[in-house]
Write a structure and sequence with these properties.
Elements lengths: L2 H36 L3 H11 L5 H15 L1 H7 L3 H17 L16 E5 L5 E5 L1 H22 L2
Antiparallel strand pairs: 1-2
Helix pairs in contact: 1-2, 1-3, 1-5, 1-6, 3-4, 3-5, 5-6
C-alpha cells in the first residue's frame, strides 16, 4: 500500500475514533437525562438504563428527548434551543457515516493523494464525503455544545 494512502487511512482512524467517542458522550448524556426524567431512585435509575434505555437506538433516544422537551418545556424548545434537535440529527448522521462508510483509498498509481480523507457511500449510487480538519473540529464543538444544552435543560 502506498505510504500516503496509509497515512490517509491512519488519519481517518484517528478522526473516526474521536468522533465516535464524542457521540458516545452525547448519547450517554441523553440516556442519563431520560433516566433521570422517568425515575427518582438509584435502583430504578439503574433498571431503566439497563433494561429499557440501553435497548433504544441513538435515533430513538433523540426522538424521545425531542418529544419530552417539546411537551414539558415548549418555550425553551422554541426560543432557547430551537436548533438542538437538528444538531442532534446532524451529529447522528455524521456518526453513522463514519461508522459505516469505508475510506476511499482506490487511487491509481501516481495519482495525487489528498491530505484529507474521503468516505464513500454506495447507497443509491456512489457518494463521497471529504472530511477536513476544520469539519472535524467543528463537529467536536457542535457535539460538546449539545451536551451542555441537554445538561442545562436537565437543570430547568
Amino acid at each position: 500500500m502506498d505510504e500516503k494512502v496509509k497515512r490517509l487511512i491512519d488519519l481517518s482512524i484517528q478522526y473516526r475514533g474521536n468522533i465516535l467517542h464524542h457521540c458516545i458522550l452525547l448519547e450517554d448524556t441523553i440516556t442519563d437525562y431520560l433516566a433521570m426524567y422517568f425515575v427518582d431512585t438509584l435502583e430504578r435509575y439503574k433498571d431503566i438504563r439497563e433494561v429499557v434505555l440501553d435497548r433504544l437506538t441513538f435515533d430513538n433516544k433523540i426522538a424521545t428527548l425531542d418529544e419530552l422537551i417539546k411537551r414539558n418545556y415548549p418555550d425553551s424548545y422554541k426560543n432557547k434551543y430551537p436548533k438542538l434537535f437538528s444538531e442532534l440529527r446532524y451529529i447522528k448522521d455524521v456518526r453513522n457515516s463514519v461508522a459505516h462508510w469505508p475510506v476511499y483509498s482506490h487511487y491509481k498509481e501516481g495519482a495525487k493523494i489528498p491530505k484529507e480523507f474521503s468516505l464513500i457511500n454506495f447507497r443509491n449510487g456512489v457518494g463521497k464525503k471529504v472530511f477536513s480538519k476544520g469539519e472535524f473540529e467543528l463537529f467536536q464543538k457542535r457535539t460538546l455544545k449539545c451536551i451542555d444544552v441537554i445538561k442545562k435543560i436537565g437543570k430547568e
